[in-house]
Each structure stands twice: as C-alpha cells, then as structure tokens.
Write the structure tokens for this entry.
Amino acid sequence: MISRRRLIKLSAASIAAPTIISSAAWSQASAWPNRPVRVVIPFTPGGGADTIARLVSIKMSEVLGNQFYVESKPGAGGNIASEFVARSAPDGYTMFLAGDHHATNNHLNPNLSYDAVKDFEPVSLIVQYPIAMAIPANSPHKTLADFIAAAKANPGKMTYGSPGHGAVPHLSAELFVRAAKIQMVNVPYRGAAPGIQDLIPGRIDSFWNNVAPMVALQQDAKLRMLGVTTAKRSPMLPDLPAIGETLPGYDVTGWYALFVPARTPKDIIQKMYAGAKAATDDAIVRKRLEDQGMIVVGGTPDELGKFHKEDLAKWGPVIKEAGLKSNE
C-alpha cells in the first residue's frame, strides 16, 4: 500500500514533469544550431534548386552561426527526398527545399509512404517563378488569342510539350487547355533540352518551361514566348503578356520553399524562418535569385502553410480530370 506521504510526492512529481520537459525543449531550441544543418534538395546538383539552396544556406550560416550545407537526393520526381525528410528526426538538423512537386505528387501517386501536409512543418516560401508558353519563331500565331483560335479550328491536331510528366510546366499546359476549352495532344519529354530541340524546327506547336532558360533563345530568334503563367507579368519580361490577360483567372506559379519534418519544435522553426528571411532580404542574394527569373517571397511559416494547402487543392482536380499518374 502506498503511504499518504509517498502519494503526495508522486503527485508533485507528475505535476512538475511538464515543466521539466518544457524546460528541456526550450533549452534545445535556444542552443540550436550547435552542429551543421543539412538542407536536402530533390534534384541533382547544378540546377535551379541547388542554386537557391546554396544561396540561402550561405546566408543562414552567417546569421545563425553554424554551417548549413546542401545535400542532394534526386529521383522519383522528388519523392525520394520527400520521404527521406519525412522520416528524419524532428530536431532541426534536417531541412527540405521542396519544389512545387510537393503539391502535385500526392495526387499523381496516392500510394506514397508520406503525406505532404501531415509529415512536414512549413518554414518559408522562398521564391516563386513563372512558366512560359513558347512557340516556334516562325509560327504564324502572333498572339495567344491567335493560337487558341487555331487550336479550336483544328481540335486534337495541335501539340504541346513540357520537360517532365506531372511537373508544373506540364500541368500549366493541362490547365491552359481546359481554360481555353481546346483539345491538344501532349508530347512528353524527359527534360527541357529535347523538347526545345523539337520546338525550334516546328516539330511541336508549343512548349512549356521555366522562363529563364528561354530568354536567350527568344533573343536569338529561335523561339517566341506567347505568355507567362503567373497572374501578373514577369519583372524579367515586362512586355510578355500574362496568360490571364487572355484567360481571366488563369494563374500558375512554380515555387521553392523550406519545410522540416513534422514535430520539429516551433521555437526552432521560428529561428529557421528568421535565417531564411535574412537571406531573402539580402540585396546580393535577392539579385542573384532575380537574375534566375525568380520572384523572391520570403513568406512566414503560416503563409507557406496556407499557400501549400491551396496549391494542393488546385492541382487535385486538374490531375484527376487529365487522368495523370506518376511515371516513376
């Protein structure tokens, strides 16, 4: 039998326990980071994600007083990196620079071993970027309206290509077809280079890709862009119309954002956000990102959480109606 004195001691200990745990959690957050932090990217080194991650990581290292380093885990359309981060310890030493695949893969593959919302905590929306619709330089279509009229006059005969099945450029084209009420044939490519090589001589009628790599090709009169997918015109190409000017309500942005595993302490997430915001506010980092065609955002964790859920909701019906599934 437990004595009254012993019962009082046990009750006191149970009341004090949450204070001890809370104190330990606070100590962990206040000491963070006391060792290097890895920033996982879902693609190979040398690409856009790698550039963004390195620029942000360098500044976060300066601001937060420990090394942030980039670790590449490519494959399966971003799913390998996503699963790795979802299963990582929620201790603040694994971050994830996710791309817009983080809003589409759950719809493309319902059997994923992770959940894009439940298994992650948002930190900051770093950048957004426009997709552009390009046509051959010698195409007879001078405007987006001309192109749509031709597609309506030739249902199911005109083609569009994109650099990756189920990626945002592909989905931008699918959304365009539905918004314009036209029928086109999808010609899938593995990467932008082979698609652009077919676009230039007119083997396909249009190609959808990130704006930045196509600027020089337009300047060299090898292709012609008809519009950007963002709601507003790109600061990089102010004379290029937004598709929404012809199709009201059309709005697609590619993006990269920082996430961490679910259950990462909120105090650590706030420190991460402060470091990321210092990076996106830095004039040099901003200029480097804008030179890549990016729109720098630097949003709060709550803003990213809301944006991510809205993007998930937008792409679900498009993917379902198009009958798209993962190729991986």
